[in-house]
């Protein structure tokens, strides 16, 4: 085989040995996914991006007789896109991109299907939780700024923290710590003053310290209070704030809780496979209510992260926030199973046997 650069008419050609060509060279044709329908090749290669549709990806990954390869793009599409779009995930992985491709339906929907899909999108816990976090961050901005000042930081350092890309994660971590009943007025100054802050990104350093110090709820044993979590997952924003902010947060709290209950009721009514993994609900009122409370957490987790697999918690995630939520959902799953097992193993009451014969 002779290879010559396309931009040169003469010279610059090299000849590859036949032994090398037979092992390392494939004869390839570039076609679109639409043109590839009906074609079968020995091997097929396709590029998948966050904008790829499920239908085209299926066609591309079923053309090869012996092998099908996908090359997943997790960076920006070209040099023109220097800054990420707000909807893009900066922590995207090949798995998360492919998950998005499989959820991206390219076929046009009917008017009824469009209305249903939009209602599901805007009414989902994924959307409501994102709105809750955005409102909470704005509502608690002044409070966290004041607390950082009181912790011994200079005005310049506090401004750097508030302007940092990591401030959103820090704000969420402070909210999570407070929901776990940690006294931030005491804890945060102690964590900040424990060691020198010599890193360029102060927000990341403080976030890491808070995360490590508050990984478990405050208190121990019987004194430990349950965390203030919406649907067992989302930390409630506390503290003083503007009345309209408080109202907006309360509305989303109620919507998230209602949505989680609807998701569970729908799964029970449709006998979705993942429900069976929780076991059967107990018959006694108290234990049945506890079982439902734990099942709601699992249903909320599935809706928040758009899990549609038969396994209750889906695949593992690389996201730090999702790892926290999956730990809560797994704990709820285990408790629901334990309640179901307790019901199954309860002894069946025996009726007293009655004897017949002569009596005094």
TrEMBL record:
UniProt feature, compositional bias: Basic and acidic residues: 335-345
Region (Disordered): 335-360
Family annotation (SUPFAM superfamilies): P-loop containing nucleoside triphosphate hydrolases (SSF52540)
Biased composition (Low complexity): 347-360
Protein name per the record: TrwC relaxase
